[in-house]
Amino acid sequence: MLCCSSAACLYQGTEIAFHVDAGSTPFYVAFVVEYENGEGDLASVEIQPASGGFMPMQEMRSAEWKLNSGGPLSGPFNIRLTSGESRKVVVAQAVIPADWKPDQTYRSIVNF
């Protein structure tokens, strides 16, 4: 279940989840952001590998974000989300583990 793109969805009591795209590799990471509570579109999504700072991701289509890193990335990964409407920011700490696999869903303990 994905959050709507043009209207806010209400998933109170549900944490944000990240479904890693089946084609993801250590050099290319893509995922769908699921269950953003009532915030509508995201203004930005950033990923932080185990060593390094946050890197901006590109929006592919509604709720799907990607990063072509140019070098191998290793987890665990922190994900920083910024709401398009309220500009609230949440960080899902170590939400995608070091031993992540493509086509898997990883649940955070945060929501807007």
From TrEMBL:
<dbReference type="InterPro" id="IPR005795">
    <property type="entry name" value="LolPI"/>
</dbReference>
<keyword id="KW-0964">Secreted</keyword>
<protein>
    <recommendedName>
        <fullName>Expansin-like CBD domain-containing protein</fullName>
    </recommendedName>
</protein>
<dbReference type="GO" id="GO:0005576">
    <property type="term" value="C:extracellular region"/>
</dbReference>
<dbReference type="InterPro" id="IPR036749">
    <property type="entry name" value="Expansin_CBD_sf"/>
</dbReference>
<feature type="domain" description="Expansin-like CBD">
    <location>
        <begin position="27"/>
        <end position="108"/>
    </location>
</feature>
<dbReference type="InterPro" id="IPR007117">
    <property type="entry name" value="Expansin_CBD"/>
</dbReference>
<dbReference type="Pfam" id="PF01357">
    <property type="entry name" value="Expansin_C"/>
</dbReference>
